[in-house]
Amino acid sequence: MVAQPTNDRPGKSQVRRAAEQLCDKFAATGADRFEADILFPAEVLLDLYGEDIRARAYVTSDPAQGEMMLRPDFTVPVVQYHMDRNETPARYTYFGEVFRKQEDHPDRRSEFMQVGYELFGGGDAALADAEVFSVFAETLKPLNLHAVTGDIGILIAMVSNLRVSDARRAALMRHIWRPARFTSLVKRFAGVIPTPPSRKALLERSDPMADAGPMVGLRGESEIVSRIAALRADAEDTPMCGEDVDLISAVLSVAETCPNALGRLRDIAVDLPGINPALSKFEARCEALTRRGVDVETLRFEASHGRSSMEYYDGFVFGFYADARPDLPPVATGGRYDALTHRLGHGRAIPAVGGVIRPDLVLALGGTV
Question: In this predicted structure, what is the pLDDT of residue 1?
């Protein structure tokens, strides 16, 4: 017997129809339709994010093309497409399946549909951010969702202005999108977490490679020696000062309405003035959102929001959630990814912001398109 779809798990044909209708709405705003391959070279994402991406994506091997990856989302292929065409400004919309492993949430689907809207080349970042957010807010308005916003750019500015070594700053910057790892690094750099005995013993050895045995794995001896040298240098570094640790905690704990959050961050900036340019962008975005009819006085801002999403966001981030269904993932997410266009644009960069909607979740919440 074939199981019948329920509201929580609508059938694939229903989801596809809803996706097509959402895509039609985005196209009506002037967005061009975009089609992406389901399989694309794994080296693209591996170059961007390293081996960590394997824990989230499905990788296979093709006898002619080498390692291939089932697309975990659409942003990378749409950026590649736009940068190759060298046209700006532009808007795109698309829909299709994406594939992600769900080791931390086995109850969630590993294959699901996304519908996206992307804006490239907006000359005023605040206006572009406001446009994309308001398009999503208006589209999802019948579902009575609550929105949460954040700004990865503020966190990047925070790390950039800490009084730490370049090596430690690079490590913290790399792990902004891994909250648990980031917190662990801060504690280690501050001397709160002692060096594990096994690592300490290794670092104290005059020749750490002596009696190492046969080499197993992907790392060669030179890479291992270089890593040990970096660990030794870090162990000899002075602990991160308590004031910087407190400033990190203060920034990450900000979670209020946008105006109150901006005021709180301005207070923190007295001791961390390097974040002021990012706060000016936040303030300009609030003004642009207000002009687009968004009630900024009640709009939620959380400094840590967006840190568990894909790692290309480097500015404004947002998500839409169903209060009545806290078990569901966000119905829509998005943000700004200017740096990604530079990495995929062969030295060129174009301002870019966009987001995606899960049509299956729209249907599960009883919504119509």
Answer: 28
